[in-house]
Write a structure and sequence with these properties.
Structural class: alpha+beta
Shape: elongated
Radius of gyration: 28 Å
Distance between the termini: 76 Å
CATH superfamily of the largest domain: Regulatory protein AraC
Organism: Agrilactobacillus composti DSM 18527 = JCM 14202
Keywords: DNA-binding, Transcription, Transcription regulation
CATH class of the largest domain: Mainly Beta
CATH topology of the largest domain: Jelly Rolls
Largest sheet: 7 strands, antiparallel
Protein name: Two-component sensor response regulator
GO molecular function, one term: sequence-specific DNA binding
Length: 277
């Protein structure tokens, strides 16, 4: 159903379950849609994607409330009670896609979907996907419905990428960045995993696992490399400083350990390195 409202074409298509078995199929799709209040106490039989184009709405799902502003979206699992309605003075315009199919449960497991996933920021690909893919759903012959199945699959993969990048952004903000900041500002002092856990608020095993995924080493291994890099700079720029002084300045209280770690990393002792400069 397409209609014009205030000079804007409102686009919406609804489907019945296809006679031919398809991996994925569309139940409904639309954009530029003037969203009214919806209440589903028993949920919906299809997986439901909803995003805001303009205005805003309030979504209640799984005893949680989220405000859906422009460039934000939510994916709701089947049969999960939910409701949503416009908020504010501006008309709430949405884009949506409801879909199902034999392989959808596996794909939702891949997305780590339980009852819902909320996206507080949509990347441009996801944000414009429905309006750009809409024409694929205008026909209902066999070849077109196969194409539609592929389009839905691509959309799910785009959602996964959006979710992954969003998670990485969260990890950087809450774990990686605070650890790096603390290490670079306090490298000359003794630093422990317990101190870093106080900085991030996460457990030592979890924060170390996240850090290792990003850098291929633990925070304390990163710290050791950072100290040695700083030592190289001091050896190059300050010929007047004793080796022990430089070791102390970069956080090595034991001069023997400093020399051992430096040689292990650069295959030269600090004195040998200085002589090459």
């Amino acid at each position: 159903m397409n209609k014009i409202n205030g000079g804007v074409l409102e686009m919406r298509i609804s489907f019945q379950k296809p006679a031919q078995q398809l991996p994925l199929y569309c139940e409904s799709i639309g954009y530029h849609w003037p969203q009214t209040a919806v209440k589903r106490p028993h949920g919906y039989y299809a997986f439901h994607w909803l995003q805001t184009e303009s205005g805003s709405g309030l979504v209640t799902v799984d005893q949680h409330q989220v405000k859906l502003a422009p460039h934000q979206g939510i994916l709701i699992c089947t049969n999960v009670p939910h409701a949503y309605h416009p908020v504010g003075n501006q008309e709430w315009k949405t884009a949506f896609l409801a879909f199902s199919g034999p392989i959808v449960a596996n794909l939702m497991s891949f997305l780590e979907l339980r009852n819902f996933i909320y996206f507080d920021k949509l990347n441009p690909t996801v944000d414009t996907f429905i309006s750009q893919a809409y024409d694929y759903f205008l026909q209902d012959n066999i070849l077109d419905t196969i194409d539609q199945s592929a389009v839905i699959y691509r959309f799910i993969m785009d959602i996964k990428q959006n979710h992954y990048l969003g998670t990485n952004q969260f990890v950087d903000q809450d774990i990686i960045t605070p650890i790096l900041s603390y290490l670079t500002q306090n490298f000359e002092h003794r630093i422990t995993n317990e101190q870093l856990a106080q900085v991030t608020g996460y457990s030592i095993p979890y924060q170390n696992r996240i850090f290792f995924k990003k850098y291929g080493q633990s925070p304390l291994q990163y710290l050791a490399d950072y100290r040695l890099r700083k030592a190289k700079v001091l050896l190059t720029l300050h010929a007047d400083l004793q080796i022990q002084e430089i070791g102390n300045m970069v956080g090595f209280s034991d001069i023997s350990r400093f020399i051992y770690q430096f040689k292990k990393r650069y295959h030269l002792t600090p004195n040998q390195f200085r002589k090459l400069m």
